[in-house]
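step: validate -> pass
step: tokenize input -> pass
step: predict -> running
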Amino acid sequence: MAPALRESPRKTRESRESRERSHQHDKKRTARRARYESSSSGTSSQVLSVNALAKLDQLNQKEASRSAEVTPTKPRRKRQHREVVEEKIVVEKRRQHKRKKRRVVSGALLEEGDSSRLKGIRGGARYEKDEYDSEEGGGKKKRLFVSQKNSSNSSSTSSSTSSSSDSKPSNSNLNGVSESDIPAEAKGTDLDPFSWYDTTDFNVTYTAITVGGLPIMGLNSEWDDSKSANSNSPPISTSWGSYADTPARGVNLGGWLSLEPFITPSLFNYPGVVDEWTLTEHLGTGAKAALEKHYATFVTEQTFKDIAAAGLDHVRIPFSYWAVVTYDGDPYVYRVSWRYLLRGIEWARKHGLRINLDLHGIPGSQNGWNHSGRLGAIGWLNGADGALNANRSLTVHDQLSQFFAQDRYKNIVTFYGLANEPKMTALQTSDVLAWTVSAYELVRKNGINAYVVFGDGFMGLGNWKGKLSGYDGLVLDVHQYVIFNKNQIDFTHSKKVDYACSDWSTQTEQSMSVSTGFGPTIFAEWSQADTDCAPNLNNVGWGTRWEGNYKSGDSSTEVLSPGCPAKSSACSCANANSDPSTYSDSYKQFLQMFAEAQMHSFEKGWGWFYWTWATEGATQWSYQRGLAAGILPKKAYAPEFNCSASIPSYSDLPEYY
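step: predict -> pass
step: emit ->
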């Protein structure tokens, strides 16, 4: 998801045989899921009393009705001048699944007389908010999450930048669990901990309980919000306060749960593989094992320790819709990334880091770029299935917002993202605005109290003045880069720093004022890279603007002559892509100053999130590698440069790298 202004040609999507099923890869998986996704905590060793058995028998005789997916209501107009039109959304019917007559119900809930709370917990049926999902009175219903708590050994490994680790986790917390505790219907599924690559710090007691249709499997019953990331940030249990006064300093975990070829090129080393769609299609039945190993090794608990130690206080976690659901024809790995997302949030909590949830890839692709999952045409609010995919994306948010409205997430999830980088230059503005209103109202209705984040769509910050006004807690997300614009990549070193200080500071201040822009503005992506040289950054095999071999297939965006400031054959990516130990002192000084100039400007808004934490090799895109190379401040809250200082000419630096 990194580059904000990539140009990607539209490509015709392959036709899909069926558009109406909502969460199956194939018929075999469909049948299996329908059997095991009952409302259950499901331990076979649970002994029930006579009264509990009677209640269980009563529950098993009831038939749960099915209904259509949630369709958003027509967005209400809050002001006469607001530029939003009625959204037309297609209602997508769920495929009717066969259900077992016997429902496995949590013995603990029955013994406590809480059988009514099981109403609506997904057993293949429509999820809906009920007594279980609502947490009225503010009480933490911790006992509902697990039937027992298993100890697990915490990860102490160093933060990984590669998915190629050969040592399998010990999974020693499975030693006290019997495979017979896993119902036959759930064996081998995402609810079976014996099928997981890594069980570190997961609760491995089986449960099929869901909230919003999403499993709580793997979560422990207790959580602790008392930690702070550093001495400059409050504990998670304490309100952050005003982000305008105390901006966020964060980092993305890009390339982890939503893959990008330039972050982990080793995963994409196959002919014709250019995105997560083609990767999982190529890997076929081996995709689950390959991606789960990546999820388990690319980010570990050490990652969060190191992020906090760097003086950062927030983490933005990009993930995609297949963490929740897949559709007919999708090759994506279904819902494995979900539990790693949940574990990542718990590790962040342990180290005092707040979370920005970022739905990075949504059904149909909101921008047609590889980081949305599929390179090519935009199929969201656009094309034959545009309305269908808009509806699907709202349904995904219906599930996500029910889940993350639980008490355990109310303090730690401070930003809730609707859609990463919708390409509004290619979509109808009114359609995107209407969808945003529908999504906002939906997640608020479901209990999300975090700030709700929407993307600027590359329209220009001044164009957001007066739009989407009157929605409390709505925040504009802006991604700033110079290297994806052929008229900015040619800025000299000195000009890049000056532009970050002057132009981006001005843009931030204009955006933060409702008299000249939208209002609350956050900068959730940026980097210190001064070239577009990182391999695969511009898509696999597309070349670079810097060297002048950027072949996008679109004459309006191609750059076929050297684009670096020297504008000559001297323009080379060799130095930018070299080991940072070979960087000159002057180049290191420039890179750090360029980064700190951006920090200075973005802190005039609600703060920033660097893109990204870890890469396999692209140093100038990795906060972790930048720290090690000495080209980022040792502590994010203590930069060495601010924009009130003079900017060197960098006359000793050649302008071709």
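step: describe -> Residues 547 and 562 are 5 Å apart (CA to CA).
step: cleanup -> pass
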